[in-house]
């Protein structure tokens, strides 16, 4: 077989690869750049769309949740509607965490109305509105009083006749006999759009008790779209299915009022021609629009909200942007690749010359089939450290080869055993809470999924409990995190004490929240254990004379029931929330 010099063996492949790479990249860039550019553009659009989709869902979630919680509370405890004044505190606490929440209200069949209200523009202060405090059906504004719920009257607020039973939020909910969305509308006297969700309240006999509702200001969505950093010439809109605009990425009016008539801005009559053209196709998917010689990549996706409401996200970006970026990148890559391969070829030639001679000596010694030929190699063999190391290694290898073969199996066995122990330790660490020694949330998810499969397969009953420490922040703030950690460890010990070690599951779900899963245990037994836990907390101070209490949300699943982990956790969380609202230190089943 004909041999070739090492120098050419190193240099020739690099020269050939440089030519092939340059030609290939040129062909790819000129033939497929349009398709690649569109793919890049779609990827960019979907990344932006995903952020907007998540933001809208998170933004609207409190509206649904609060209506559902209040509907459930009033339906099952109609006596709460006998005196609306204490409900003011409930509404105030529900609204306080959400800057977008403008109203949370209750209207009864006898015309009484109470709401936690907030200015949709100058947000941050929730007040109370009521039409029954001093005179029936006369609306007045009041300061919120943490002690008495309804405080002093706000003199600057207007006083007017108000019967909620004739208002659309009330009449529409009763007509639909279920959750009902209001039309998006401007707030009276404020430059902001809002939307509401209302639901009729019936008692267990089916008698109408009233209507509960929430409303949020949508100005924050408009500000969010404006704040997104997009490529030059890009546009985003959020609209209803009929094209009525909710928010856009550019400044502009979303509605106009003239002669007492309010007209919403719509894509089809927008001053921007791009939006007008976009309004002609609001079907989900991607397409290309041409406007005065400018090509845009256009993407539409619906956002499905709960209870039948659907909005549209639309994104338009100029195709020239991502095509130019890809073209510039491709040309730069071709040039850099060619220069790189030429340099590598020259360097390879010098390296081949420098390392060729000592490698030939090593090759001759290795082919002599004589260990002494390797041992007598001159030291140092070359000015290259690796070649010297190779020469020394060959000498050592001959001496150690026999010993290595004898000890190899033992070393492999020891190493395997060690790695198995390390893997087990790492797995346990990843599934266990460091402070309490309980499962963490990840451990809970794995264990709970397995429990669900087993109990559904074997048609067994089980109970999920979510619980947390009442006023835990107060303990941390007053006594410090060391006492707070002690309280968490004490609670963990109590929970483990009343759970069966090899059967039930005890988890630190997060913060001061814990989860328990009792298998093959009826509700009465579970409640007895929870009462024992409460008694133990009440008799054991965490510091000095400071005791803690706990609230529990319990969901029992009977034999053969099929339900997902997410639904179970959601139900238990709602019951825990109810226990908190009922005064804490409660067990809600």
From TrEMBL:
Determine the domain of life of the protein's source. Answer: Bacteria
The portions of this protein that span the membrane are: 6-28, 333-352
Q: Which InterPro entries match?
A: Diguanylate_Cyclase (IPR050469), GGDEF_dom (IPR000160), Nucleotide_cyclase (IPR029787), Rev_trsase/Diguanyl_cyclase (IPR043128)
Report whether Membrane shows up as a keyword of the record. Answer: yes
What Pfam family is a match for this entry? GGDEF
Q: Which reaction does it catalyse?
A: 2 GTP = 3',3'-c-di-GMP + 2 diphosphate
Which top-level enzyme class is recorded in the Swiss-Prot or TrEMBL entry? transferase
EC number(s) recorded for this UniProt protein: 2.7.7.65
Keywords of the record, alphabetical order, are: Membrane, Nucleotidyltransferase, Transferase, Transmembrane, Transmembrane helix
Q: Name one GO molecular function term.
A: diguanylate cyclase activity
Entry keyword tRNA processing: no
Q: Where is the GGDEF domain?
A: 460-589
Q: What is this protein called?
A: diguanylate cyclase
Natural source organism: Marinomonas primoryensis
């Amino acid at each position: 077989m004909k041999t070739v010099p090492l120098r050419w063996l190193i240099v020739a492949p690099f020269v050939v690869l440089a030519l092939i790479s340059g030609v290939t990249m040129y062909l790819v860039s000129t033939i497929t750049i349009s398709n690649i550019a569109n793919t890049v553009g779609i990827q960019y659009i979907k990344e932006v769309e995903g952020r907007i989709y998540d933001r809208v869902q998170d933004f609207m979630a409190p509206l649904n949740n609060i209506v559902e919680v209040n509907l459930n509370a009033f339906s099952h405890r109609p006596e709460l509607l006998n005196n609306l004044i204490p409900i003011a505190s409930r509404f105030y606490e529900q609204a306080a965490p959400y800057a977008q929440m403008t109203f949370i209200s209750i209207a009864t069949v006898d015309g009484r109305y109470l709401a936690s209200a907030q200015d949709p523009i100058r947000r941050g202060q929730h007040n109370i509105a009521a039409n029954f405090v001093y005179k029936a059906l006369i609306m007045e504004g009041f300061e919120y009083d943490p002690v008495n719920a309804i405080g002093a009257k706000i003199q600057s607020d207007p006083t007017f006749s108000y019967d909620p039973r004739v208002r659309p939020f009330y009449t529409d909910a009763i007509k639909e006999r279920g959750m009902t969305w209001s039309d998006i509308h401007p707030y009276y006297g404020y430059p902001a759009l809002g939307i509401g969700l209302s639901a009729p309240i019936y008692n267990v006999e089916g008698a109408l008790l009233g209507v509960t509702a929430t409303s949020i200001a949508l100005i924050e969505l408009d500000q969010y779209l404006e704040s997104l950093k997009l490529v030059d010439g890009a546009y985003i809109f959020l609209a209803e299915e009929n094209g009525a605009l909710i928010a856009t990425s550019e400044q502009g009016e979303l509605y106009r009022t003239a002669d007492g008539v309010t007209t919403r801005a719509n894509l089809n009559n927008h001053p921007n021609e791009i939006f007008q053209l976009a309004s002609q196709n609001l079907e989900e998917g991607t397409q290309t629009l041409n406007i005065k010689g400018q090509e845009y990549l256009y993407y539409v996706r619906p956002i499905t909200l709960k209870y039948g409401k659907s909005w549209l996200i639309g994104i338009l970006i100029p195709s020239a942007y991502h095509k130019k970026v890809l073209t510039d990148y491709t040309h730069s890559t071709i040039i850099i690749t060619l220069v790189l391969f030429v340099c590598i070829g020259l360097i390879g030639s010098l390296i081949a010359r420098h390392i060729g001679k000592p490698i030939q000596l090593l090759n001759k010694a290795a082919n002599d089939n004589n260990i002494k030929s390797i041992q007598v190699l001159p030291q140092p063999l070359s000015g290259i450290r690796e070649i010297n190391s190779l020469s020394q290694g060959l000498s050592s290898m001959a001496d150690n080869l026999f010993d290595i073969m004898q000890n190899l199996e033992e070393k492999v066995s020891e190493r395997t055993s060690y790695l198995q122990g390390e893997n087990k330790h790492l797995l346990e660490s990843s599934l266990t809470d460091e402070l309490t020694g309980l499962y963490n949330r990840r451990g809970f998810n794995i264990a709970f999924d397995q429990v669900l499969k087993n109990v559904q397969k074997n048609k067994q009953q089980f109970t999920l409990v979510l619980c947390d420490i009442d006023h835990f922040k107060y303990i941390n703030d007053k006594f410090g995190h060391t006492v707070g950690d002690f309280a968490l460890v004490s609670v963990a010990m109590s929970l483990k004490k009343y759970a069966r070690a090899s059967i039930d599951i005890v988890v630190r779900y997060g913060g001061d929240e814990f989860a328990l899963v009792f298998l093959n245990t009826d509700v009465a037994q579970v409640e007895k254990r929870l009462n024992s836990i409460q008694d133990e907390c009440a008799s054991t101070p965490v510091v000095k004379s400071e005791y803690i209490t706990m609230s529990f949300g319990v969901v029992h699943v009977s034999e053969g029931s099929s339900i997902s982990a997410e639904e179970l956790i959601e139900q238990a969380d709602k019951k825990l929330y109810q226990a908190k609202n009922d005064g804490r230190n409660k067990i809600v089943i």
